[in-house]
């Protein structure tokens, strides 16, 4: 099993890490990225861990940060479609495949 990070999900991740870096420094930004990596590793080992959510996609909430990883399982690949902040407009990632 492997994962593919959608280009726009990669942008979500970059923007969030940059926000934390600007607001609180590099250490918090690195903690956020480490939390994402931990979540991605969990999904690789347990792909059905996230709850079925909208449009048949799955969602796994991160532990320390107000984000969810939105993903789908296609064959032996986890496609991470969004790294969505809980206060951002809902379903902004809807068109991503």
Question: Briefly, what is this?
Answer:
By secondary structure, this protein is an alpha+beta fold.
Order of helices and strands: EHHEEEE
The CATH class designation is: Alpha Beta
- Describe the main β-sheet briefly: 5 strands, mixed
Percent of sequence in beta strands: 25-35%
The total of helices stands at 2
Looking at how many chains there are and whether they match, the oligomeric state comes to single chain
Instruction: Round the Cα radius of gyration to an integer and report it.
Output: 13 Å
Number of DSSP-assigned strands: 5
First-last Cα distance: 18 Å
Number of separate structural domains: 1
| Biggest sheet, spatial arrangement of strands | 1-5-4-3-2
Structural class: alpha+beta
CATH H-level superfamily title: RelE-like
- Inertia-based shape: globular
Mean of all residue-level pLDDT scores? 92
Protein topology:
Layout: E1 2-5, H1 7-24, H2 26-45, E2 51-52, E3 58-61, E4 67-74, E5 77-85
Helix pairs in contact: 1-2
Describe this structure in words.
The chain has 97 residues and is α+β, with helices and mostly antiparallel strands. A hairpin with a 2-residue loop joins strand 4 and strand 5. A 5-stranded mixed sheet has the order 1-5-4-3-2. It is 39% helix and 28% strand. It has one domain: YaeB-like fold (2-Layer Sandwich).
